[in-house]
Each structure stands twice: as C-alpha cells, then as structure tokens.
Amino acid sequence: MDPLQTINGRKVRVLLIEDDLTLGEMYQEKFSMVNCDFSVVADGEEGLTKTLQLHPALPKVNGLSIMKRLRQDEWGKTLPIIILTNLNPSDAILSEVITHQPAYYLIKANTVPDDVVNKVKEILHVSP
Predict the structure, then answer these.
(1) Angle of CA points 6, 11, 12, to nearest 5°
(2) pLDDT of residue 85
(3) For 26-69, what is each residue's pLDDT tens digit?
C-alpha cells in the first residue's frame, strides 16, 4: 500500500472508535502499513475526548451522538467523519446522518479494511 502523505507537514492522524477489539487490531495493522498516526479507542466518550485533544484528520465514529457533539465544537464543525457500522440505516437514522453530514456512511458487513483506507485517502485528497 502507498503511504499516506503528510498534511501541512504533519503525519496524517486517524482515530477509530471501535468496541470490537479484533476489528480495532485489524485496522491498527492496516493503517500502520500506510504510515499514519493511528489511534483506536473502545468507547465513544473516550473517542470524543481524544478527538478534541488530538484533532485527527479523520476520526471514524460508532455513533451519531459523537458526530453531533463534534459538530457543536468549532473545530469539529467541518471535520470529515466516516461512520462505519453494523446498523442498516432506517429513514430516521438517514435523516440524522444527513443533518450532520459525515463524509461517508459504511456498513461493516459490506466493507473491507482496504476500502476504509482508500476512503481516508480520497477524503484527504491523497493519490491512491
């Protein structure tokens, strides 16, 4: 895999909020192969705290509540977010998602780790 480039002289920083330890480790391995500063946390509260501290280039969140809270923060208003979930979107969920404008909404069962890495590259305008 091609390494992610730096943005403004800083290594790309990605945060994953994932309660499945095995998936977290798998993504840790994938993102280590593309030379980025990758962190994984197991719950939303820790993820929100870490996101606001680290200002990663692209956090992935496991819940709409985290995205809503990030959108209330000045820095988080325009932050590109990928939602990676096992939940198929209902009309109500889609309405919430559209309101808070994530960069992508992906279903885990239909997504492999390379797809997520490629979405990060696409959002950050890094050549594939």
Answers:
(1) 85
(2) 80
(3) 999 988 888 788 889 988 888 888 888 878 766 665 567 788 88
Question: Which residues have a Cβ under 8 Å from the Cβ of 70 and sit 6 or more positions away?
Answer: 48, 51, 52, 59, 61, 76, 79, 81
Taking domain 13-123, whether its CATH number is 3.20.20.10 is answered by no
**Nearest alpha-carbon partner for 93 in 112, 120, 85:** 85
d(CA 96, CA 92): 6
Q: What is the 3-state secondary structure (H, E, C) of 75-97?
A: HHHHCCCEEEECCCCCHHHHHHH
Distance of alpha carbon 9 from alpha carbon 4, whole angstroms: 12
Order of all β-strands in the sheet with 104-107 = 37-41, 13-17, 58-61, 82-85, 104-107
Q: Determine the Cα–Cα distance for residues 105 and 122; give it in Å rounded to an integer.
A: 14
Tokens of 54: 């680290």
Which tokens in the block code for residue 90? 């209902």
Amino acid identity for residue 82 in this structure: I
Q: What is the pLDDT of residue 8?
A: 56
